[in-house]
């Protein structure tokens, strides 16, 4: 049973903004996470949701390479059908399960939309293990989880908060909230560790654990691993083409993936009047696409604090954010 209570502290108070208001702490047995009030009506529908063996789930903590991974997985599982991929947005092909509960001002029924998808379904979510559908543990669909080092994940999430969620505060307040597990989907460390441990269990063969850093270091090798995981085989030439399609520049220019509709929604919904009066932002949903971009946003003190956070997150495990 999942219980919840209003959650407020100095960190949540400083990052409350139009897109993520009213934080709650959800608890299930010995596990907990932070979500917002808008998510609460989705708890039961998600827990009771039907799951099918041919489902393919891409799960990440926010801003850990989700869009990049979705595009790769959908194409590999659909015969590299670039024509169809170009006609349908990624949100149509690979919808975000809890979208209507992850942004305070977002309308719609994202859970119902996923439930009504034709099979095989491709499903994106950012939920921690404790909030997944109960049936996922017995039906065992394919799950692809992607992690990222905390410094880059927090930096990318900060820019997302500013440009999508409507946060106008200083980056230091956002980083403090991340480090003190006071953001939506927190705690980051537990989020990652739970999926890592799942993937290492004898019964975890249905969970493929990847890292953003692996994808940047050798995308071709990751394409091979995901292909094998999905039971697909492609020629060297086909992999060459997919690798080019998944380049950062190609993804930025891909209208089916670059989330222009979401950016327009944010400009009209979550941006403050002051922000609207500023010159048009050059923000792109697919931002830097690099490892180490945190160096442009963090001073030495925050880098040290995040490195301490990384050490605490991996203590007692064989997990390394950069493996």
TrEMBL record:
Domain Sulfotransferase: 54-315
GO cellular component term, pick one: cytoplasm
Protein name: AGAP012648-PA
Entry superkingdom: Eukaryota
InterPro entries the record matches: P-loop_NTPase (IPR027417), Sulfotransferase_dom (IPR000863)
Keyword Transferase attached: yes
Naturally occurring in which organism (per UniProt): Anopheles gambiae
SUPFAM superfamilies documented for this protein: P-loop containing nucleoside triphosphate hydrolases
